[in-house]
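haha ok so turns out i had the wrong file open the whole time. this is the CORRECT one, sorry everyone. sequence first:
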Amino acid sequence: MNGIKILLLLLAASAPPGASARGIATVIDSLALPRSETIHATFTVAMPQLPEDVTYNVDLYTEQSSDTILFPCSYLIDWKIESTDNQSYGFSAFFNGNHYRFAGEKLQEYHASADSVAFMPRRFGASSSEGVQHSAQFVNLLPVSIASGLEQMQKDTTCTVTFVPDTIVGGEKAAVIKAKRIVGGYAAMECEYVLDPRSYAPRKAHFENSPGSVSEQTVDVSYDSSGLLPDGMTITEPYLISRYPDIFARLRQSSFTLEKLVGHPLPGFSAPTPTAERYSRRTGDLLPSTTLLAIIDPTVSFAPALVEELRSVAATSPSPISLIMAFTTTNADLIEEVTGPLKAGETILQSARGLARDLGAANLPSILLVDSSSKVIDVMVGYNNDLATSVIQKIALQQ
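then structure:
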């Protein structure tokens, strides 16, 4: 590897001004082009504190998509740890605004139609995070993700990126891109991509994070093969369910259509209160009485009127009613403006976008009528002036 590094430095030094940048732009354009293909990769990570390297076998499936707003293509990523002692495995998938991920006996799914926030980049002070479709395990191995990463490195003033269009690596002609990030005078990251010199398809990748420090991490990726998608593969929800029937049967908590909850136990959930406490319940947990669970966007103009309608139901119902109002905001002051003082028999929750997503509440407000055994009796979507009367009638029918 040292001999290769010296050769690359010499070649880069002899390149005409601007040639490296133009070459990198060409590579990015090629990698960013979505393709329907299958790629097998081997991903190996080494850290000083680990007794041995950890190796993953990763299968990457990408499919061209007409919807490229949230991601350039549809993808399915299957992975497993190559170890006789560890049978860990998982998958991630994205298509048309839907994201699924499974690992550690936990299945998660996100749907932009129900909650687009999870798909948006977020900033926390000096740090930031990508949307769920960009942060899935091994998604950075996809060619389109490599293109995005290289583009970001070029814009990063702490990074130096060089391109060698024609060299020899492992006895084969190759193109190579190298990048190094310097922070506070120290190398924070070094990476190297070995590419096919004509198509720029990735062959190998090498990453060193915090080199020379106690937290040093080295990653080597070998792209072993590529080809067409398997016959019959279309990255959709029905395909995922047919591919992983046991996982979906055992672990899926919602079909993400609110109406399908009727007649079934209310799924368990956990959410914070405006007073920094936490309300949690498990699937099937009994309720103190018939309960109205309302998921509300407090920014809409009718939110205060909706709250009053719900309280009217609780006050005039022929049988005791508990009221849970779950607001999609994290702003406790805004919630208080909408609700006023908390009343007896009420529970107020905030940060309920995740709850809306998990219950399949694509449109708000969404109101669930749940009996004391935790069975969902009925659901109502939207707001109108006859809401209280309608809910009272539905409660009376259960007597």
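The two ends are 78 Å apart (CA to CA).
again sry for the mixup
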